[in-house]
């Protein structure tokens, strides 16, 4: 892996982590009675929007896979719409998985779906920025015959991408534990009242 790729990857991850930290620190200055645990639905929305914005801006600035040929505006719009559909499908799938893991289906649909959007933002959006809606590329990356645990030199760009995917999975785990704590905190408040 080239030093420039490592620096770009580290700076991208640093900016992503800082955006998550800022979504916790900055909103109390603008919103009354804001706390991550008390107003967690607003925080889920703010965090999703902030991470989405940072991912898209980093993709535009860093241009991980620039194309040598010119692409028409209609092709760009079609690609964007396909990415939106894939993102929405991933939100629905994450919502289903969260419900299967025990989240209430009817009582807190909005909360569960916003958490699914946050998970999709941390995982699928980054993949969409890197791979686009190309199903063959997704299969090549996530298949068993993709790169394996120890990539050969020709697979180093893929190894870079997989390392960033593993970091995003870690961010997802942190977000999941925050959501569980927030949900338990709200239930305790409602049972006291």
Describe the overall structure.
The chain is mostly helical and about 190 residues long. It has helices spanning about 5-25, 25-30, 40-60, 75-100, 110-120, 125-130, 135-140, 155-190. It is about 75% helix and about 0% strand. Helix 1 runs antiparallel to helix 3, helix 3 (about 40-60) packs parallel to helix 6 (about 125-130) and helix 4 packs across helix 5. The termini are far apart.
Secondary-structure content class: mainly alpha
- Average the pLDDT over all residues and give the rounded result: 74
Beta-strand percent range:
under 5%
- How far the N terminus sits from the C terminus, by CA atoms, comes to 57 Å
What is the share of helical residues?
over 70%
Q: Tally of extended strands?
A: 0
Summarize this structure as a short list of keywords or feature phrases.
globular; 193 residues; mainly alpha; single chain
Explain briefly what this protein structure is:
With 193 residues, this protein is mainly alpha-helical.
Question: What topology does this entry show?
Answer:
Blueprint: H1 3-25, H2 27-30, H3 40-62, H4 73-100, H5 109-122, H6 124-131, H7 135-142, H8 156-192
Helix pairs in contact: 1-3, 1-8, 3-5, 3-6, 4-5, 5-8
């Amino acid at each position: 892996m080239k030093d420039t790729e490592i620096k770009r990857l580290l700076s991208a991850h640093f900016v992503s982590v800082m955006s998550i930290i800022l979504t916790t620190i900055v909103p109390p200055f603008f919103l009354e009675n804001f706390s991550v645990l008390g107003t967690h639905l607003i925080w889920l929305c703010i965090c999703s929007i902030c991470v989405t914005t940072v991912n898209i801006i980093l993709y535009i600035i860093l241009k991980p896979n620039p194309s040598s040929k010119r692409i028409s505006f209609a092709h760009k719009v079609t690609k964007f719409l396909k990415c939106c559909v894939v993102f929405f499908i991933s939100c629905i799938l994450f919502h289903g998985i969260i419900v299967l893991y025990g989240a209430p289906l009817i009582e807190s649909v909005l909360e569960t779906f916003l958490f699914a959007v946050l998970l999709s933002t941390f995982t699928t959006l980054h993949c969409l920025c890197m791979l686009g809606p190309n199903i063959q590329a997704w299969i090549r990356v996530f298949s068993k015959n993709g790169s394996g645990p120890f990539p050969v030199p020709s697979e180093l760009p893929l190894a870079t991408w997989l390392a960033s995917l593993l970091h995003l999975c870690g961010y997802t785990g942190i977000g999941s534990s925050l959501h569980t704590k927030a949900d338990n905190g709200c239930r305790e408040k409602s049972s006291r009242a």
